[in-house]
């Protein structure tokens, strides 16, 4: 007679899966409540959204694009995509990260407060990063900057020492490379 297998009282070593970031482009009907349903899917299942932008892309067809940056294990991300595809107002879900390098841009407004050398240095760095001055006084600047999120992050890190006071960011707009449409 075979001995029954013993159960261990210690948890088995957890398999660690790599957390990856994905840019999802979701084409939906442009009607009331659609954004709430899409975002509700994320919230209801405990998925995090790192960035979210929405705009109408085809007025005649009442079609909007929701661009979501989210992260998780590959299995969780696959599950998110499948659940999004099952929502009635969703026409198509594209994983721009999986399809290849997407073009991603973001707009940021950055307020820096300072005088003297710090003010001069902030202007010098802004010129290098091609940030435009959109508001100024003798004690502050508001810079407008567009670019890859990593570029904006680098600029913000440099501005911390120079008097970074406030930041407003739009979220990431993304589009796939090449001649194909949505």
UniProtKB/TrEMBL annotation:
Its EC number is 2.2.1.6. The keyword Acetylation does not apply. InterPro entries: Acetalactate_synth_ssu (IPR004789), Acetolactate_synth/TF_NikR_C (IPR027271), Acetolactate_synth_ssu_C (IPR019455), ACT-like_dom_sf (IPR045865), ACT_dom (IPR002912), AHAS_ACT (IPR039557), AHAS_small-like_ACT (IPR054480). Keywords: Amino-acid biosynthesis, Branched-chain amino acid biosynthesis, Transferase. PROSITE patterns: ACT (PS51671). Catalyzes the conversion of 2 pyruvate molecules into acetolactate in the first common step of the biosynthetic pathway of the branched-amino acids such as leucine, isoleucine, and valine. It catalyses: 2 pyruvate + H(+) = (2S)-2-acetolactate + CO2. Residues 23-98 form the ACT domain. Pathway: Amino-acid biosynthesis; L-isoleucine biosynthesis; L-isoleucine from 2-oxobutanoate: step 1/4; Amino-acid biosynthesis; L-valine biosynthesis; L-valine from pyruvate: step 1/4. One of its GO terms (biological process) is isoleucine biosynthetic process. Dimer of large and small chains. GO terms for molecular function: acetolactate synthase activity; acetolactate synthase regulator activity. CDD domains: ACT_AHAS. Pfam families: ACT_AHAS_ss, ALS_ss_C. Gene3D superfamilies: 3.30.70.260, ACT-like. Chain A, domain 2 (3.30.70.1150). This is Acetolactate synthase small subunit. Belongs to the acetolactate synthase small subunit family.
